[in-house]
Write a structure and sequence with these properties.
Elements (H helix, E strand, L loop, with lengths): L2 H4 L5 H18 L1 H9 L16 E2 L2 H4 L11 E4 L10 E4 L2 H16 L6 E5 L1 H4 L5 H13 L5 E2 L4 H13 L4 E5 L1 H10 L8 E5 L12 H12 L5 E4 L8 E3 L5 E2 L4 E7 L2 E5 L6 E7 L8 E10 L5 E6 L14
Parallel strand pairs: 1-14, 4-5, 4-6, 6-7, 7-8
Antiparallel strand pairs: 2-3, 8-9, 9-10, 11-12, 11-13, 13-14, 14-15
Helix pairs in contact: 2-3, 9-10
Length: 326
């Protein structure tokens, strides 16, 4: 299947057909995923509905080279981690698929990135190599073609002046930042911007500040920036697509991505809408690695396909991890 097919999905029927096609491709070509499916008694021929497709525990990205193609690797994206911890590695054989995914995803939710001045406040990501988020934002900054666009790592005063000037001049501006850095910014500066400015948090305190619930974080940021909503980006090293929230922590997927919720006590069972459980993700942009991933996030999905992220599993809460002993 070509990437163009994935990014031209229009409806649920298109998505299901594409997902079944990708499953068969990955079952044949991804030996780790194939062994995992076989342990569950699932084979290529036994899957005829999207509900039958197994989700690979995300921990495998820390232990195995998860690839579904013999092509050479263009780049390796790595997750952040504490010193000495094992990080996830996502082996990317075709960066053009990732670039198409994040560009089309951004356009789907926000329109043409060239219309925005894009400002990035991502200290924890810029201070290490291999961040897929930095790669995405760097490309979007180049696409925006505005001289003010860029990373503002140690230029807080310049960032504040740029935000205030853009707001006064009603310029469409996106400030994308890690949570602790956005909090630092509003605690040290008086910013009252208009809603032409989008404030988007990428989550995580990265050990710099104590964690807080989303409602508390967003209220502080709304008050500090003077905006009516805080947007959010939901992505991870193991995905080549992003979901976005335009407020209240309710995320939506692009057409080639979907979320379902598994029973925390029985990881092979979907518990449906409006119930809290483990987040399973289908990301068809992962065609060259694995598109079917059981994450460590806890969440809830709604009838319209939107979802919330409510926390993370404690390791002691994860069931069925013996399946990782391939």
């Amino acid at each position: 299947m070509q990437a163009d097919t994935i990014f031209s999905i229009q409806n649920e029927t298109d998505f299901e057909q594409a997902a079944l096609h990708v499953f068969k491709h990955q079952y044949i070509n991804n030996k780790t995923y194939q062994r995992f499916c076989n342990l569950l008694g699932v084979t290529k021929s036994s899957v005829n509905r999207i509900d039958n497709i197994p989700y690979l525990p995300i921990e495998f990205f820390k232990q195995e080279k998860i690839v579904s193609t013999p092509s050479l690797i263009d780049k390796i994206f790595t997750s952040s981690g504490t010193t000495g911890s094992i990080t996830s590695k996502h082996y990317i054989s075709d960066l053009s698929v990732y670039e198409k995914s994040f560009r089309k995803g951004f356009e789907h939710f926000f329109g043409d990135s060239r219309e925005y001045i894009i400002l990035a406040l991502l200290p924890s990501y810029l201070e290490r190599d291999g961040s897929s988020l930095v790669y995405m934002v760097e490309k979007l900054i180049k696409d925006s073609n505005h001289s003010e666009s860029g990373f503002y790592l140690y230029e807080t005063e310049k960032l504040v002046k740029t935000l205030q000037k853009n707001s006064t001049e009603n310029k469409k501006t996106l400030l994308l930042g890690v949570s602790f850095a956005l909090l630092d910014l509003v605690e040290n500066h008086d910013l009252q911007l208009n809603d032409k400015t989008i404030i988007m948090e990428t989550g995580g305190m990265k050990g710099r500040r104590k964690e807080m619930i989303r409602e508390e974080l967003h209220q502080i940021l709304k008050d500090g920036f003077g905006v009516s909503q805080i947007h959010s980006e939901y992505g991870m090293t193991e995905l080549l697509s992003q979901a976005y929230s335009k407020g209240n922590g309710i995320f939506y997927c692009p057409p080639w991505m979907s979320i379902s919720i598994r029973n925390p006590e029985d990881p092979l069972t979907d518990i449906g809408n409006n119930k809290t459980g483990g987040v399973n993700i289908i990301d068809l942009a992962n065609i060259n690695s694995c598109s079917f991933i059981a994450t460590q996030d806890l969440g809830k999905v709604y009838k319209d396909g939107s979802f919330e992220i409510l926390g993370r599993f404690d390791h002691s809460d994860i069931r069925g991890c013996n399946l990782m002993a391939l």
